[in-house]
Amino acid sequence: MENVLWNSSYVYGIDNESGWGGRYFFTYFSEFDNSRSYYYIVEVVIFLLTFVVSIIANVSIIICVARYPEMKTVTNCFVLNLAVGDLLFALTIPVVAYTRLTQSWRLGDITCRIVPYIQFVSGIVLLWTLALISIDRHRCIVVPPYRSKMSPSQATIASCLIWLATAAVFIPVTLWFREIHSENDLTVCSLVFPKSDTVSFSIVFIVVVVLFACLLPMGLLVYHYQQIFQKILSTKNAWSTSCVVISAVEIKGCSRAQTRRQSELSLSDIFVPWPRKFSTQMSTTNASRHGSLSTQEELRLNKHIKVVRILFLNVLVVLAMWLPITIVMVLIHIDGRRDNNDRNYFLRSCHFIAALLIALSNTVVNPLLYGVLSDNFRVCLMKIWCRRKASLLDPATPSSGRQNGKLKRPSASLSEKSEKSEKYDTERKAVNCIV
Question: Which region ranges are annotated with the description Disordered (predicted)?
């Protein structure tokens, strides 16, 4: 057939296995355009840098959680699952980089089937793990008795079930991705759906992916984090209005404005990527604080805000980085449904590679996000890579306070005062869930 390479991202081949016969196939990882050799080298360099950083960062996160018992919390077990998924996804990078250099697929039919399967499964496990984290945080912060019903072992079992379910659902990917040989002795790894006059396998596959992999976990994320934000913000009234001392006369030399602690909470306190510093000037006074939150409770609420901040930013990053590859995959399906006589294909392999590279970058961003924003992970990474002697923070939470570069724990006297205080009301209990 003439002008086989009129579009360097589509090749004409004969499919006898699925019954399509002669048709054009999208090349995915390959692109046969020698004029773009410079761009291929740039792509490979970016792929290799992403691979090295991703392996180092995710292995470090795995070591932190697996090596130190203090880090084995429910949330951190899910973070461990995210790191394993990112690591597995990153292991496919050398295959993609090698194919960009060689252009033609030279790694065999089995590799062609396994690599896309790993990429699909890793991405779906990532979203469902984030959904499980949101469910656990919701129980811990919103639902009485404000305690996680999961143990670290149960979180591990739940993570394993996610892997098993996702691996089973996407087994057809190993059947539909395979080598295609073109008339010009070119070989590509392409997705070929079975041909059927009664069932459109491509539509069924897309519907399952969109519902199971995207809409359902994203719906759970939106619902639970909306409830979490609403609960945290609802503590504002109990936290701020009660912080006004009954009478300024009780504290000589201080005005009412000065005796009000800096306790107001807003959305910016949740979303900004740095911890809020709270004033403790009045924490040692004898002034009456009817219905106010104790300093211990403020510390707990601050920890909750920091944990939710990290997790929410992680969700935003994941959705932003996986959205392009999802859109491109749908467009590839739409573009590939053309008749052989209609050659106005608009997609190229470089579009797919760019979207894939963005998704692969998430394997670097996730561990860096924990390492930068989470105090416990930051201290743990310092112990691993810098050989510094530093004790982990409160093992019950992935993030805690820091003052003057030193780790800070609540004092024993503060804990004793908290134990002697009256029972917390509903708004107070919301901040008492151990993270």
Answer: 396-435
